[in-house]
Design goal:
Blueprint (H helix, E strand, L loop, with lengths): L3 H23 L4 H25 L3 H28 L5 H25 L6 E7 L2 E7 L1 H27 L2 H31 L1 E3 H24 L18 H23 L3 H22 L1 H14 L8 H12 L4 H16 L4 E5 L5 E5 L8 H10 L5 E3 L21 E7 L2 E8 L10 H64 L3 H28 L8 E4 H18 L3 E6 L4 E4 L1 H18 L5 E8 L4 E8 L6 H6 L16 H11 L3 E6 L5 E8 L6
Parallel strand pairs: 10-12
Antiparallel strand pairs: 1-2, 2-3, 4-5, 4-8, 6-7, 7-8, 9-11, 12-13, 13-15, 14-15
Helix pairs in contact: 1-2, 1-7, 2-3, 3-4, 3-5, 5-6, 5-8, 6-7, 8-9, 9-10, 11-12, 11-14, 12-14, 14-15, 16-17, 17-19
Length: about 700
């Protein structure tokens, strides 16, 4: 008698133990991973018991082994179904919580059945051949248990299929080897259970078939575990998702064919195994011929293989459709950026990615990066490498990464795409290494270029909508200005009335106090209103001339020091000597004055405010105002920055930063802000430099 079934049983058990220990040593336990380890170790125990059963020489030993197998056979299907409910699901804890009462009830009932159910009620006879265990015959109840096991396998495959359909391309890459192992083991289990259901008999040859399935299953999971992170696959399946029933339909067809073959075998008096092989052979030949003569079937199979096993040859057609739906959706710009870069990286199987656009001082979203922020210097480096609408894949062998090596934050970049049209670059996309060590192909470049063009269109539409909104707000402001003028007239009226009353009451102490208070409040109110109104309107015809920026800004800072000193704030200027630029000096002074006032207002007594002036390597002059105050709120930075009438101050119209940006852009520059709540802010204004004294 051959010992191959014994070798396969113990071999499958050892592989399963190795798989369980590997996941135990890796740690990072989640509910689905913990359940997986438990199932794997229980399956290993089942295989060892099967091996021992195949070596038994007495009925008593066989009954003891069958008792253990019966208990495992009751619990393992329930655990397997629960595992596939959780496997790959992002909402695993929600699934567990909703099914906790049923899980507890199932464990109690199965435990009672496993303890009380006698083996003889399931197995009617144990067979021996040449002194060794050969097989076991089952009762009607045993066949019913076989049907239950078969249905649990079908339902598990159904759950896995639904998760697989919603998985992204990288996630399918991670799961393709486990999928082969699961399908192989399931098919062989179907064959074994079919034998049990049809003939109420399980022999050592079918044990070998079942063990072969577990060898394939454990080997595929071991390979995938060493190459990928299986339990990082996170798919959310909501209630509105339409489930696929392909698994159930195929299982139903299989069971129908099984019943038909059993009926024909009994009716014709033919051996069941021979008839089964004959029918399956005919169906296999028919299926193969159908594929060979059907161009559509060949295309579908080729496309399925390309999508899941040869991803470097995948044409991204389904990904284009998925991204097109994202483009058509109506969402805020921040949410769009996050979804866009995430979907792009998943589609291209890229490990890291970042997207930056020149909106509201610069917005950024990232994928796979722990720190999504990007420094201003990095923005200039990337923009200097690309023209609008251009895509660049870096070739490390050609050393075309010199500029990126200047930044500690961009060493991971392997491909870049500029956003914009014509000569204007409005942002960029940068992505890192591809998964599995794949190289960037021409198809990847086409895909990246297409999505960059679509993203540019979305961003331009957003900016256009923002301009329309700002225009409406400016119209509102013009109406508001009439009320301000009315208030100014009222204030002037109060001052005039006070002046008239002073003729008769100038020596009255109470009148003097009231008059001084009225004058002080009226003057402050007029100053605030006039300053706010003048700040909104940037003069379109700036009077530019060559100006020594160092001298100009240092003098302006000195005039603001008394204001800071009265608030208990230290103000100092730090700048390089003799920096010249073609600017309107009054406009630059207004920018510095507004930024310093904002910094002083945001600082607490004892704080420091610094005004820096320096020349950039790209031919610009940078003016920076740095404070250690409260900083800008995250919501303000994301949604209200540089928009009029949006302010974080208790008093004010929220016009100062808008004015600064307008004046900077009129000089051909821009304003950038770096801030963290309660950790201060750094406001940078850049304007083009000129030759010294020019």
């Amino acid at each position: 008698m051959t010992y191959l079934p014994v070798v396969l049983s113990f071999g499958a058990g050892l592989l399963l133990v190795a798989l369980g220990l590997l996941h135990l040593l890796r740690g990072q336990y989640k509910p689905q991973k913990t359940l997986f380890i438990v199932i794997v170790l229980l399956l290993a125990l089942l295989q060892f018991v099967l091996g021992i059963l195949l070596l038994t020489t007495s009925r008593g030993q066989a009954i003891t082994a069958l008792r253990v197998l019966l208990g495992l056979g009751l619990f393992l299907p329930a655990l397997t179904v629960l595992f596939f409910m959780l496997f790959g699901k992002r909402n695993e804890r929600e699934i567990l919580e909703s099914r906790r009462p049923w899980i507890v009830l199932a464990v109690i009932l199965l435990g009672i059945v496993a303890v009380l159910l006698p083996v003889e009620f399931v197995a009617t006879e144990v067979h021996f051949l040449e002194g060794l265990f050969w097989g076991v015959s089952f009762s009607g109840f045993g066949k019913l248990l076989g049907v239950g096991l078969l249905l649990s396998v079908v339902y598990s495959l159904f759950l896995f299929e639904n998760m697989w359909r919603l998985a992204s391309v990288p996630e399918k890459t991670t799961l393709k080897y486990p999928m082969l192992g699961i399908v192989t083991a399931s098919i062989l289990t179907f064959v074994v259970l079919s034998r049990v259901i049809a003939f109420a008999l399980l022999d050592r040859n079918h044990v070998a078939v079942y063990s072969s399935g577990l060898v394939a299953l454990s080997a595929s999971f071991l390979f995938a575990t060493m190459r990928y992170r299986l339990f990082d696959v996170r798919v959310y399946i909501g209630r509105n998702v339409v489930s696929s029933f392909v698994t159930i339909i195929l299982a139903g067809v299989y069971l129908l064919a099984l019943g038909l073959i059993s009926f024909l075998a009994k009716w014709l008096g033919l051996p069941y195994d021979q008839l089964t092989l004959g029918v399956l052979g005919v169906l296999g030949v028919f299926f193969l011929v159908a594929i060979l003569i059907s161009g559509r079937a060949k295309r579908r199979i080729r496309r399925y293989l390309d999508q899941n096993f040869y991803l470097n040859r995948y044409d991204y057609r389904s990904e284009w459709r998925r991204n097109a739906r994202l483009m058509a959706s109506d969402m805020a710009i921040d949410r769009f950026l996050e979804d866009f870069i995430s979907q792009l990286c998943e589609s291209m199987m890229v490990e890291k990615g970042l997207m930056w656009i020149d909106v509201a001082g610069g917005k950024v979203a990232s994928y796979g990066l722990s720190e999504p922020a990007i420094a201003e210097g990095d923005v200039y480096i990337v923009r200097s490498m690309l023209d609008a609408g251009e895509v660049c894949v870096l070739d490390m062998s050609k050393n075309n990464t010199d500029r990126l090596e200047k930044s500690d934050r961009l060493h991971w970049v392997r491909a870049l795409a500029a956003l914009g049209s014509g000569f204007e670059t409005t942002g960029f996309i940068i992505v890192g290494h591809k998964a599995l060590g794949l190289d960037y192909s021409e198809e990847d470049q086409d895909f990246l270029s297409t999505l960059a063009d679509q993203a540019t269109l979305i961003i331009e539409n957003f900016k256009l909508a923002q301009k329309i909104t700002d225009a409406r707000q400016m119209e509102t402001f013009n109406r508001f200005a009439s009320f301000v003028i009315h208030d100014l007239k009222n204030t002037m009226g109060m001052l005039s009335l006070t002046a008239e009353n002073a003729k008769d009451n100038i020596h009255d102490a109470d009148f003097q106090r009231d008059a001084m208070d009225t004058i002080r409040r009226s003057v402050q109110k007029m100053k605030d209103l006039i300053h706010s109104l003048s700040a909104v309107r940037a003069d379109a015809s700036l009077k530019k001339r060559s100006v020594d920026m160092t001298s100009l800004i240092e003098q302006k800072t000195n005039t603001l020091m008394p204001v800071a000193r009265r608030r208990g704030i230290s103000l100092q200027f730090i700048g390089e000597p003799s920096l010249y630029a073609q600017v309107d000096p009054q406009a630059i002074e207004r920018i510095v004055e507004n930024l310093v006032h904002n910094a002083v207002d945001a600082s607490k007594p004892g704080g420091e405010v610094e005004v820096h002036l320096a020349r950039e390597t790209n031919g610009t002059i940078r003016i920076e105002v740095i404070d250690q105050g409260e900083g800008f709120e995250v919501d303000y930075m994301s949604n209200h920055l540089f928009r009029p009438f949006r302010t974080t101050k208790k008093e004010g119209l929220g016009i100062g930063l808008t004015m600064c940006k307008t004046l900077a852009e009129a000089h051909g520059g821009n304003v950038y802000i770096e801030s963290k709540p309660q950790r201060g802010a750094r406001v940078s204004v850049r304007v083009p430099a000129s030759h010294d004294g020019a």
